[in-house]
Amino acid sequence: MHEHFIDIPGRGTGTIHRLTWFSFGGGNDGPHVYVQGGLHADEGPGMLAARLLVDRLIEEEGAGRLAGRVTVVPAANPLALGQFLHGDQQGRFDHYDGRNFNRDYPDLTARAITLVADRLTDDPQSNTDRIRQALLQTLETIVPAAPSDRLRHALMRLALPADVVIDLHCDGEAEVHLYTQPSSLERVLALAAFARCRAILVADISGGEPFDEALTKPWGAIAAAFPGKPIPQGCASCTLELRGRMDVDRKVAADDAAALVDYLRYVGVLAGHSAIPALSCEPTPLAGSEALVAPIAGLVSYPAPLGHRVREGEVVAEIIDPVTGDLHPVRASTSGVFYARPATRIAEIHKRLGKIAGARPFRDGPLLSP
Q1: Which residues, in sequence order, are CB contacts of 286 under 8 Å at separation 6+?
Q2: Which among 46, 166, 226, 232 is placed 20 to 30 Å from 37, CA to CA?
Q3: Between the CA atoms of 157, 158, 160 and 161, what dihedral angle is there, to the nearest 10 degrees?
């Protein structure tokens, strides 16, 4: 195990933000998996699971079971770890410009296509290596200025060499669920099984250039640009949502780290065998995920518990006007698993009240929350 640092200059004189990561198996030829937690710095479950994964990997390395490579970034956003407002962590948006830390990652596709145009061969592995190098070269032509963009640049540089990228997040309150792309789905389904996901949301483009999609998107575009060449999908990525913000529990996180270890065995990074459990759900389109919205302001209660399979027309939430006592039911317009909701029970008009993973796509445009 090797511990690494990169210092990101802050906006103020003399301010520095330190990004720390751990690498395992640097000399191995096996698969390379990248895991990060805390890109949204107010989401603790992924940070704890990633840190406990480091501890497990130290044990696996000591026992001689490391066959591939792993990069782990337990706290991927040192900038937002220092953002507080009235005593509450503010980790999703940059206080300086309001941008979501999991949006606006650079699109490396066009320049990478130019770089590999005369270098591709009839050998898939050779093409994979050359495309990955072109993506890294393209990234280095971008000179970030803002601290948040320097962070984006640093995280992409760490993740681009990986075959599989796992970005750990959480919701307000939620069942374990996973977001991925069609090109990555087959390779991350085992992770969804090990983690016992209750929803698997799939979209080719969800909007906003999030971290995971920025890493996978160029591969499909490059393959489409050179149809006569064998070009594998060199990176499979996903966002794994580990329940809700309050679910920071060492025992639960140890189970999450164990699921990650099982997945690393499955993909060949660790020696040994892990039997894959049955999936707890089937993949559904992200375009079929309904975001329930509050029609009025008031207090929120939930007749339907998380994990409940709701039917179209069923009351999922109720809003009570604390002055008049009026009760407003909020009904599902699709059928599926009620997999996430906010942690607060006070709603403003148009507040998102929950998410239902439906099988029928009905949305277009940006599919993710802001």
Answers
A1: 179, 201, 202, 203, 206, 367, 368
A2: 232
A3: 120
Mark out the alpha helices in the chain (DSSP H runs). 44-62, 109-116, 124-140, 147-159, 182-195, 211-225, 250-266
Residues of the chain with CATH 2.40.50.100: 285-358
Query: Can you give the pTM of this predicted structure?
Result: 0.98
Rounded Cα distance between 77 and 73, Å, is 9
Contacts of 339 (CB under 8 A, 6+ apart): 174, 175, 177, 198, 199, 306, 307, 355, 356, 357
Whether 309 and 356 have beta carbons less than 8 Å apart is answered as no
* 241: its two tokens: 């949502």
pLDDT digits (tens, 9 = 90+) for 246-284: 999 999 999 999 999 999 999 999 999 989 999 999 999
| Class in CATH terms, 285-358 | mainly beta
Q: Which fold has domain 2-281?
A: Aminopeptidase (3.40.630)
Alpha-carbon distance values, 144 to 8, 47, 152, 175, 231 (Å): 11, 26, 9, 36, 30
Report pLDDT digits (tens) over 114-149.
999 999 999 999 999 999 999 999 999 999 999 999
